């Protein structure tokens, strides 16, 4: 009997502690905190039931705490965002990030927090097809950061279609007009995560002395059809995809040799200006609009133009891991 009483006492105390933590977390401080909702109440009940049944619960919030704009300071403090450059070297070498996302808000926030630095600049492209709730949550988060913004033009992104490349280009165009003197632009998707610190990434990029990182090789056999045949995007309510037709494409413009590689790259600011304005880049973009996964040949093909970038980093034995494989 004493052991049973001791067990019930422990369970009761544990439930009280958990309730206090939830209460403080949701009601303490500024009024900008989100209130304890039904899902939180259900979670609390499930925790208590788990204790009573002799099980150890694993708690993980299904929503990150986001404050209203008036409470951004509290949100940054509670989430432990870095609010000042950690070194002179990093302050003098700001980076630009392109983040293309469409769902999993919590995952996006964790990536954003991991790569966030106040001297950097961040352009976030949200799939036009994303839910209103997701778009609103992203916009609310970014409103807390003067160096982060939504892309000025959103695309309904179709996997393997030109829309994925266009999403990156929309952000590059926005970043080109930024007063932040960023040195490199790095594109990411919502499921990426860095294994190096900002300083380590900066030191790595500085070693390339303005050269681009566009991993790629001549097209392997399985990839030749991607640019040989005309492809069309199909944008449906339930499912979107790219269709391969039997129509043959004309040769690439300007007698360019098409290379195949990673869609994820690190580009110097000078090179992004070339991408946005040079006729060869603009013509290649137009030619690529009916190819499959043009983001996997666009960057590396342009970076292989000898007179543009004679010494750039292209990686002959490209393994498909994207630019992040060089930051691990």
Write the layout of secondary structure elements.
Layout: H1 2-27, H2 38-52, H3 72-78, H4 88-91, E1 95-101, H5 105-115, E2 121-126, H6 132-142, E3 148-150, H7 162-176, E4 184-189, H8 198-206, E5 216-217, H9 224-228, E6 229-235, E7 240-248, E8 260-261, E9 266-268, H10 269-277, H11 279-288, H12 298-303
Parallel strand pairs: 1-2, 1-4, 2-3
Antiparallel strand pairs: 4-9, 5-8, 6-7
Helix pairs in contact: 1-2, 7-10, 10-11
Structural write-up:
Pathway: Protein modification; protein glycosylation. Its main location: Golgi. The protein is α/β, with parallel strands linked by helices. The protein has two domains: 2-63; 91-328, Spore Coat Polysaccharide Biosynthesis Protein SpsA, Chain A. The chain contains twelve helices and nine strands. It has helices spanning 2-27, 38-52, 72-78, 88-91, 105-115, 132-142, 162-176, 198-206, 224-228, 269-277, 279-288, 298-303; strands spanning 95-101, 121-126, 148-150, 184-189, 216-217, 229-235, 240-248, 260-261, 266-268. Strands 3-2-1-4-9 form a five-stranded mixed sheet, with helices on both faces. It has a two-stranded antiparallel sheet with strand order 5-8. The protein has a two-stranded antiparallel sheet with strand order 6-7. Helix 7 (162-176) crosses helix 10 (269-277). It is globular, with a radius of gyration of 24 Å. Residues 28-40, 56-65 and 316-320 have low confidence and may be disordered.
């Amino acid at each position: 009997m004493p052991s049973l009483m001791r067990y019930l006492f422990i369970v009761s105390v544990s439930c009280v502690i958990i309730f206090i933590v939830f209460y403080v977390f949701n009601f303490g401080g500024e009024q900008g905190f989100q209130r304890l909702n039904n899902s939180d109440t259900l979670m609390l009940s499930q925790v208590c039931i788990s204790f009573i049944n002799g099980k150890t619960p694993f708690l993980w919030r299904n929503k990150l705490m986001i404050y209203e704009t008036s409470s951004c300071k509290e949100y940054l403090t509670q989430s432990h965002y870095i609010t000042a450059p950690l070194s002179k070297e990093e302050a003098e070498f700001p980076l630009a990030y392109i983040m293309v996302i469409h769902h999993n808000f919590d995952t996006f926030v964790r990536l954003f927090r991991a790569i966030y630095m106040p001297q950097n600049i961040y352009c976030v492209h949200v799939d036009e097809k994303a839910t209103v709730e997701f778009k609103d949550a992203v916009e609310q988060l970014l409103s807390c950061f003067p160096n982060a913004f939504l892309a000025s033009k959103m695309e309904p992104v179709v996997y393997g279609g030109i829309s994925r490349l266009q999403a990156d280009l929309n952000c590059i165009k926005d970043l080109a007009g930024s007063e932040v003197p960023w040195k490199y632009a790095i594109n990411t998707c919502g499921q990426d995560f860095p294994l190096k610190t900002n300083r380590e990434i900066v030191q790595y990029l500085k070693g390339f002395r303005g050269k681009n990182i566009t991993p790629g090789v001549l097209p392997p056999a399985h990839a030749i059809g991607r640019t040989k045949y005309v492809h069309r995007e199909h944008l449906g309510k339930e499912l979107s995809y790219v269709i391969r037709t039997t129509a043959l494409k004309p040769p690439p413009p300007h007698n360019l040799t098409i290379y195949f590689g990673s869609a994820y790259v690190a580009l110097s600011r000078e090179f992004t200006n070339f991408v946005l304005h040079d006729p060869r880049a603009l013509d290649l973009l137009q030619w690529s609009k009916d190819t499959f996964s043009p983001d996997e040949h666009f960057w590396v093909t342009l970076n292989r133009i000898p007179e543009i970038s004679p010494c750039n980093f292209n990686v002959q034995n490209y393994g498909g891991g994207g630019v992040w494989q060089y930051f691990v």
